[in-house]
Amino acid sequence: MASIAATSLVSVLSFGGYGVAVILAKVRPLRNAHQALSVAYGRLLDLLGPRVLQDPRDTPAFRVMVSLSLSAVPIFLIQLVLGKPRLLLAIAFYLSLYGLRFQRFVRMFSAKHLEAHRRKGYFSEKYDKVLGRYVEFFLGYLYGNVPELDRTVHVRLHHRENGGLDDTAESRSYDRTSRLDFLWYLSNNIWTVLGIAPYHYFRASGDEENRKHLFWGLTRYYAYFAAVFIYDWRIGVLFVLVPLFCMNFITAVIAWVQHAFYDPEHPEDYFAHTATVLDEVNFMNEGYHLCHHHRAGLHWTEMPVHFERIRDRMRISGSLVFRDLDFMRLFFALTLFRRMDVLAEKLVPWEPMDHEHRLALLAKRTGSERWLIELTAGATRRGDHEDKRDTLDPC
Hints:
The protein is mainly alpha-helical.
């Protein structure tokens, strides 16, 4: 419940800030000034990015790093210098971390995720010794992200297990359409976020190298956590504990839906249970999650092409693809509101399929057999949706 409360608090500020921004955008001088500054800022980073990055295609991630370094970091340092917690600083801190409508967090999450799959992070050799893995090993502290949860746990546990039974993030034993089941999953996920469950995984499997990497990551984060609380427990709650609980909630949501669609006939086939979501806004192609699992080292700009390469295997495995959704909206429809009818409309099957059959497929793949009962009781027929336009055409 603490994770839900923390995320709710941040959500009010994030979406409230967005509402204020919409109102201010109607004032032409403010709108023009913002656009001019944004264009100038973007051009500057476009010039600077190729000089400091290994690959200039990663400039979007570079923009996130610079934005956080110029906002969240100084706000946190100012709060430490002032000592007594300031409410306005806490609000500014949350807005700088999560952004309006959580958009900055979405970008940060994708940046740290893909950084973990780079041997030396984003920066070129000249800057790597100082800025190597800058998102995970520096900015991550502000978000409640334990060092090595990405480079070690995500890459060498999650990608090894691919959402299987030994994956600390697996969700097949839960009804993915149940809010109560998600609460149980959320309460268990904190042990992954704190690094405890992955640590026991590496120790049980005899993987000493990764156990040691994670141990030192845990040591650094817990030392940071303790130091801030010793300095001032109120600052610790506002600037350390709240982000940690938010990280727990958001990572639980993402892990819950990214591998939500297990095929009971082929439970170990990660092609079957890994979802792909194709939205208008798809920062660093995060929605191509199956492509990422299939070729984790592939650069994010190459994911759409790789999607076309593996279409046949996806079709054979019954991999699920949704259009006009992101992972958060998938969670809302699947679990929070249980709008399987919405998911059925967003589902793009490999062969023509009417609405009832889509609902039956989703019920089978989410562990929610009660939806089948509702279908037989008279679910709405949508025959108009079974024409070939609803089959998966090339992107």
